[in-house]
Amino acid sequence: MTALAPGENRPAPGDQLTVTVASSASVDVSALLVNSAGKVRSDADFVFFNQPTGPGVVYRHGNGGPDVVAVQTSALPADVDKVVVTASLDGRGPATFASVGALTTTIESGSTALTFPISGLTTESGVVCVEIYRRSGAWKVRAIGQGYDDGLAGIASAFGVDLDDEPEVPAAQNVPMPPSQPPAYPSAGATAPPSTSPHHGNPVAPGQFAQPPAPPPSGQGGAGQFAPPPAQPSFSSQQGAQPVHSDLFDPSHAEVNGLGIQKQGGKMVKVGMNGEVMARAGSMVAYQGDLKFEAQGSGGIGRAIRQHLTGEGVPLMKVTGRGDLFLANSAADVHIIDLDGTDGLTINGANVLAFDSTLRYDIGRVQGAAGYASNAGLFNCVFTGRGRIAITTHGTPVVLTVDQATYADPNAAVAWSSSLHTGIKRNDSFGLGRLIGRSTGEASTLAFSGRGFVIVQPSELPPGGLIGGTGGGQQAGTGGGIFG
């Protein structure tokens, strides 16, 4: 095994190279395919945990061991000048490489191996380990060992990766809003427009059951005879089978009509599709028509990096086509919010069910909550723009109008106006920490000021329960959600 010094270069030991980055701290390994200008040709040239393959390059997670990048130089595109292999701290250990003991990169091909121990790092949280570069028709390896203070995001940005959200889709391609607009939030108890059953002509609002037929007048059944029970709605099979009778065919269970995101009862939404919508991955319970589902991860490279480092985000799927899509999340209560573009919505990613593609979202720190966590975590998803979003709560929420100092249990506050100012109020002086929070006895509450609203659910359990923690776009999320 040959050791490389910083800046030293050697011929690549083969066409198929295995680059292993071993560290005494937990790191993320990535690779960037760059051109002669030192930039990626597109975001597809950034190979990392959320995009593990590129032309001639494959990322493999170490699963408890070192991460590996496999490079086949003969498969690299002609306009790729070099492959840059990097390592960045993932936030679960030290904040900088100054306190990381060992960081070693090894390049192997067959029985030949080159190793590069990296040292002398101080404030850096991301480092370029080695380059595999083209020179006069041959491939060589260079030891780099130079770092970035802003970690993986800094590395990606330096090589031209676009960390902004995807460009907005033209409005004509998005799912139109339902023809009958409900009032803007607060409207937690609002119902979707009335629907009409295909078998019954009486429109019934979802969640309201039709009155059963009145019993026959007294004595109509004859002496000693019981009156027959009220007739139930029926469904007649088109194959000629006997009709099926059930209150399930009551108009209140029929699907709602129209395009866009609408409530279907209290725990489901229906999306009348004629374009596209963004939905929580795995939330589809049924669909009709010609729809295409495409996994979107956390919704862009920049957000994927922030989600990985903060634990907050929304695992998304993009649904396109024409038809009807039905979404739910563990039978949680569903609510519809319309944003008109004048204010944003700050919300825990675990409470997002679906949203129009006209909306944009990013991941931002909860103001004034440094060092704490809440139901939305230390970081939140922030939605802006014009469009509709469907959220879920654990139970029927209350919507508080913030026109005076307002405080909420940190594990009960689901979402709030982005224009509000947030902070932390300590309750120790009066012993209130023992009175607030049935399950946790936390000594702090979230404080809100300004003008807007706060959505508070009747549950102090963070998404996934007390053990599962808070934050995170996944069902349970990551990190602790207990104040105090």
The total beta strand count reads: 31
Rounded to an integer, what's the Rg over CA atoms? 28 Å
Class by alpha and beta content = mainly beta
Percent strand: 35-45%
Mean pLDDT: 74
Give me the side-by-side strand order of the main sheet: 1-11-10-3-8-7-6
| Apparent shape | elongated
Structure description:
With 484 residues, the chain is mainly beta. It is 5% helix and 39% strand. It has a 7-stranded mixed beta sheet, with no helix packed on it. A hairpin with a 5-residue loop joins strand 16 and strand 17. The radius of gyration is 28 Å and the shape is elongated. The C terminus is likely disordered.
In brief:
With 484 residues, this protein is mainly beta.
Please write out the topology:
Blueprint: E1 2-3, E2 9-11, E3 16-23, E4 27-34, E5 46-47, E6 53-54, E7 57-60, E8 67-72, E9 82-89, E10 103-109, E11 112-117, E12 126-135, E13 138-148, H1 151-158, E14 234-235, E15 244-245, E16 260-263, E17 269-280, E18 284-297, H2 301-310, E19 316-327, E20 333-340, E21 345-347, E22 352-356, E23 360-365, E24 379-384, E25 386-393, E26 398-402, E27 406-408, E28 413-417, E29 421-426, E30 444-449, E31 452-456, H3 465-468
Parallel strand pairs: 1-11
Antiparallel strand pairs: 2-13, 3-8, 3-10, 4-5, 4-9, 6-7, 7-8, 9-12, 10-11, 12-13, 14-15, 16-17, 17-19, 17-22, 18-19, 20-25, 21-24, 21-28, 22-25, 23-24, 26-31, 27-30, 28-31, 29-30
